Amino acid sequence: MFHLIKLELKKNKIGWFAKGGILANIIILGLLCMISVVEKSEGTELVKDVTGIFTISGASVRGTFIVFAAVLISKMIISEFKNRTILIMFSYPINRKKVLSAKLIIIVFITFIAMTISHIVVSIGFIGLNQIFHFTSAVSLTSSELLAEIIKIIMFSLATAVAALVPLYFGMRKYSVPATIISSLLIVMVTCQSAGPNFSLANIIYIPLALAVIALGIVAFAIRNIERIDLESK
């Protein structure tokens, strides 16, 4: 399995994902700063404490990388089935289930790492810039609060990274890239809606956990039926 993962990483260049992730972080951080400035000028404040910062940045980051995960699914799985380039890999004496499993492991791992790092970077970045430019009320972050938030970030990122596999079902039905991307946007709407700095559906762990369970069922079904797929007849 490890060799398959290395082969998939070598075959699918993911440099675009890292560059896109960095750009997304900059944009999210910039938007948080801009919105805070506007809110302050109008006499209101977007965030007043650490919880609010992590809530809003978390919803933004996870929403972004759910879509990124759908792009990965489209590139590494859906497009290969649609264009039948997956036949090259299937022509080798390698179990089809292991091939698909390797792809899914890569997608979940990359998405999880990207979400975790990005959430921390954006949140800490905003707090640091706020100390300099005073976008909103002074916000301090103790080491105990940081540790608690990091643990929470890891939990949510892991659940969301697995939940981000749900679009696989819609994409595999007719090997449709648009269906994969659109379904990821629906997941973002369900999991990342926010009704203010102190309430967001992204703060309810049961939502990504429920979607993660559904995603695992979809993955199990896809892996179990991979041997029955007849690409030659498509």
Number of strands: 0
Q: Portion of residues in helices?
A: over 70%
Largest sheet: none
Number of discrete domains: 1
**pLDDT average, as an integer?**
87
N→C terminal distance: 28 Å
Structural class: mainly alpha
Please give the count of helices.
Answer: 9
Rg on CA atoms, Å: 20 Å
What does the model show?
This protein is 76% helix and 0% strand. It has 234 residues and is mostly helical. α2 packs parallel to α5, α6 runs parallel beside α9 and α7 runs antiparallel to α8.
Structure keywords:
mainly alpha; 0% strand; elongated; 9 helices; 234 residues; single chain
Write the layout of secondary structure elements.
Elements: H1 2-11, H2 15-41, H3 50-82, H4 86-90, H5 96-133, H6 143-163, H7 167-174, H8 177-191, H9 206-225
Helix pairs in contact: 1-5, 2-3, 2-5, 3-5, 3-6, 3-7, 3-8, 5-6, 6-9, 7-8
Summarize the structure.
With 234 residues, this protein is mainly alpha-helical. It has helices spanning 2-11, 15-41, 50-82, 86-90, 96-133, 143-163, 167-174, 177-191, 206-225. The chain has one domain.
